[in-house]
Amino acid sequence: MKPDFIDRYSRLASPVHQLAAGPKLLAGLALVLLVALWPGAPWRLLGAVAALLLALALLSRIPPRFLLRRLLIAGPFALGVAVLAVLQPGGLQIFIVMLAKSTLCLAAMILLTATTPFTDLLAALRRARVPGVFVTTLALLYRYLFVLADETLRMRRARMSRSFMPARAHHWRSLATVAGQLFLRAHDRAGRIFAAMSARGWEER
């Protein structure tokens, strides 16, 4: 697993990358709140936001395939939120509006994280007086996500080398087993890390 698979393009020399992390974070959150809380179906606003995000993506010089792949990975979450609206009266229109708003909000956050090193975002959150426990949790999540990704690949490779069966049903069972074992290992590792940090004087604040 490459160590930069999360923020691979966050240190380019584009005009968007050179902006300070704090103002970018504030602008991104303001844009998300504007889109999410604006009542009704503001198609002109959504179109303007989409055009702005597209222009920023082009200025950032990040490969479009990278951003699109991230958006497709996060897309099911937006779809899951919007599907709940179908059960309401006039649900189809509400569904379309919610899907558009959720997609734009996700695109804004993906562009923010893709053009800003994660350490800079954490520093901006600390300067904004965000609770330390939340910032520490994000930092640990970022740090150990790479460890869990590598462990997942090793477990999957070991299981495939011991039980090669091309059947799709077996493939899904194998993935479910790996996911369960990974959860148990992550829980055990989290306990060991917390004990080690506590032994070195770390306290929750």
Please characterize this protein's 3D structure.
The chain has 205 residues and is mainly alpha-helical. The chain folds into 2 domains: 99 residues, no CATH class; 69 residues, no CATH class. It has 7 helices and no strands. The chain is globular, with a radius of gyration of 20 Å. The mean pLDDT is 81.
Described by the principal axes of the CA atoms, the overall outline is globular
Number of structural domains: 2
Helix content: over 70%
CA-based gyration radius: 20 Å
Q: Provide the succession of SSEs.
A: HHHHHHH
| Distance linking N and C termini | 33 Å
Unreliable residue runs: none
Averaging pLDDT over every residue, what do you get?
A: 81
Tell me the structural class: mainly alpha
Q: Helical element count?
A: 7
Biggest sheet architecture: none
Note the topology.
Blueprint: H1 21-37, H2 43-60, H3 64-83, H4 91-114, H5 118-127, H6 132-162, H7 168-199
Helix pairs in contact: 1-4, 2-4, 3-4, 5-6, 6-7
Quickly list its features.
7 helices, 74% helix, globular, mainly alpha, single chain, 205 residues, 2 domains
Summary, kept brief:
The protein has 205 residues and is mostly helical. 74% of the residues lie in helices and 0% in strands. Helix 2 (43-60) packs parallel to helix 4.
